[in-house]
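Dear colleagues,

As part of the handover before I leave the project, I'm documenting each prediction I ran so the next person doesn't have to rerun anything. This entry is a single chain, and its sequence is reproduced below.
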Amino acid sequence: MPKPEASRGQVLLRVLACGVCRTDLHIVKGELPPQRESLIPGHQIVGEIVAGATPELPLGTRVGVSWLGGTDGECWYCKHHFENLCDSPTFTGYSVNGGFAEFAVARADFVFPLPLALDALHAAPLLCAGIIGFRSLRVAGVQPGERVGLFGFGASAHLTIDVLRAWGCEVYVSTRGESHRKLAESLGARWVGSEADRPPVELDRAITFAPSGKVVVAALSSL
């Protein structure tokens, strides 16, 4: 593929790392309908700006790029701060080329400057699973010191536990897989059980990560 060029409002990134998401695999296998004849997947990009710099994003700035690569900014959702529900979204590594390459372009208003203390390999997963997990905590309205239940403990859920512990929360994990239960224990969960077990205390918040109606009922009953 030729080296991409940054258009107006875009930055050109030298890719430092790019995580692999299950969605990337769905795209590559054709389980999601293609939107382009040829495509570079990858939407958990950590890159260094090498062209298209702005005063806010000078050359050399290290930034992250996520799945949501752009919105129209004009629909009802965008104007009411629900841009994740935009009627005309752009998806990194799906409707536009992504980060499984040496270089990638991204909209300058949809990149995230990254702190220097966070290395590229650890930053990449935060740009998908990390965003999902942290947004779930915000939508749930979690407050410091609360008892929080995580129902399902995959990629997104396990990245939230450090945040919850930093907030002084007690974390209760209900999940199906034994390996996930062991991981939850190792990360400091106060209590860990199977999907059929009920936490030993009433919870202040319950967040479901497993795509199952039964899990929703279990989470509601634990509050």
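The chain has two domains: 10-123, 131-221. The chain has seven helices and eleven strands.

All the best with the project,
I.
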